[in-house]
């Protein structure tokens, strides 16, 4: 199993600052990270497992002997892309430095080779002790990112360097380590995804094979980069999307109504949905009997992208094209005809791409540039498209 850059383990040490990590957890989630909390057994004296489970929506394991059949210390380590240990006490730092593995968190740290950040919090005398200084130097020499604690008041009347850093600073430093770019902060991104359905009768419809997976990847990527995201979802699963505004629609006309509400205030429009080109002239209220189901009279659906192109002011518009022949020429024509800034086209001959986690195709830019992609994950394509959109936003 490979690691996921959005999956983060938040290790919590046994310090009074553990309560501040509850806010840290929330702020990480706001950034699009999916967080599993692993408290040390002693830290549960400060913040209980129920709190971590309620906030993260996941189990909070502390011991290697929990769910032994899942081999948690290996499975969690393998799927996580980053670690952040906050707060890290002098004892926890010492145990990590000498390679101890006497609870689940220290086992995970040894079992994982992904980037790790340590956020110390302790009394100034402990932070300045030569043993702690040596342990911190050891960890930094091994590639750990160890933050300098803040200076200020601690428990009681004591003051000095050792205070848990402000959560905003931790998040900024963690973003820098993970490469999580907040380059869409303050921008509104509007995404359509899935496939519209045009009803024939209460049972049957005209539709397509779009799963909506690329739209989900785009919504996640934009949200992770700080955007205010609205997803107009047509007949697709959105259960894995958090932190974005979602409107569910059925038909092309439903989508047209929602786009009219949202388009003028967005900065980036990504038309990832597969919109049916035609709909039945008449939709019957009762199921058509098989014997009478001989033909369907169709009429054209509105061209949603063409309509929006006429209203375009400051928006960057990204379109998608699924073709089986002459896909580059067709996409280039669509790019020009519909005033798009970027279009992604793929060859879907034989059902390729639909429902899969990977894609291959070509990105075309309005300046004539073409970027061919042999095979990439839909998550990677989402970030790449946003990179090009940001370049054009300036």
TrEMBL record:
Database matches in InterPro entries: CoaB-like_sf (IPR035929), CoaBC (IPR005252), DNA/pantothenate-metab_flavo_C (IPR007085), Flavin_trans-like (IPR036551), Flavoprotein (IPR003382)
Pfam families in the cross-refs: DFP (PF04127), Flavoprotein (PF02441)
Sequence ranges assigned to domain Flavoprotein in this UniProt record: 7-173
Entry keyword set: Decarboxylase, Lyase
Domain DNA/pantothenate metabolism flavoprotein C-terminal: 185-389
Keyword Lyase attached: yes
Signal peptide: none
Keyword match Transmembrane: no
A biological process term (GO) from this entry: pantothenate catabolic process
UniProt xrefs under NCBIfam families: coaBC_dfp
Protein name, per record: Unannotated protein
Protein species of origin: freshwater metagenome
């Amino acid at each position: 199993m490979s690691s996921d850059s959005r999956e983060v383990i938040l290790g919590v040490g046994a310090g009074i600052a553990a309560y501040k990590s509850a806010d840290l957890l929330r702020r990480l989630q706001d950034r699009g990270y999916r967080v599993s909390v692993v408290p040390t057994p002693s830290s549960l004296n400060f913040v209980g497992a129920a709190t971590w489970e309620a906030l993260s929506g996941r189990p909070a394991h502390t011991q290697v002997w929990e769910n032994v059949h899942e081999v948690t210390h290996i499975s969690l380590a393998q799927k996580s892309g980053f670690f952040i240990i906050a707060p890290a006490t002098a004892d926890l730092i010492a145990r990590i430095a000498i390679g101890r593995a006497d609870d689940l968190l220290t086992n995970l740290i040894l079992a994982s080779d992904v980037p790790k950040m340590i956020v110390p919090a302790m009394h100034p005398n402990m932070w300045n002790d030569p043993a702690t200084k040596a342990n911190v130097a050891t960890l930094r020499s091994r590639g750990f990112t160890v933050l300098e604690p803040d200076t200020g008041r601690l428990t009681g009347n004591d003051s000095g360097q050792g205070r848990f850093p402000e959560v905003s600073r931790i998040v900024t430093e963690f973003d820098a380590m993970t490469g999580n770019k907040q380059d869409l902060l303050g921008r509104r991104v509007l995404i359509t995804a899935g496939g519209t359905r045009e009803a024939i009768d209460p049972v049957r419809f005209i539709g397509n094979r779009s799963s909506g997976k690329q739209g989900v990847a785009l919504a996640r990527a934009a949200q992770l980069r700080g955007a205010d995201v609205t997803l107009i979802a047509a007949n697709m699963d959105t259960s894995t999307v958090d932190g974005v505004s979602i409107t569910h629609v059925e038909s092309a006309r439903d989508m047209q109504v929602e786009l009219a509400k949202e388009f003028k205030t967005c900065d980036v429009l990504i038309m990832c949905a597969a919109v049916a080109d035609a709909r039945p002239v008449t939709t019957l209220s009762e199921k058509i009997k098989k014997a009478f189901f001989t033909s369907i009279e169709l009429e054209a659906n509105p061209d949603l992208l063409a309509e929006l192109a006429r209203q375009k002011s400051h928006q960057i518009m990204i379109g998608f094209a699924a073709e089986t022949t002459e896909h580059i020429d067709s996409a280039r024509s669509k790019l020009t005809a519909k005033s798009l800034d970027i279009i992604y086209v793929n060859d879907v001959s034989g059902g390729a791409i639909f429902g899969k986690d990977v894609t291959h195709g070509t990105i075309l830019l309005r300046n004539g540039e073409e970027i061919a992609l042999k095979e990439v994950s839909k998550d990677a394509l989402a970030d790449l498209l946003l990179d090009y959109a940001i370049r054009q936003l300036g």
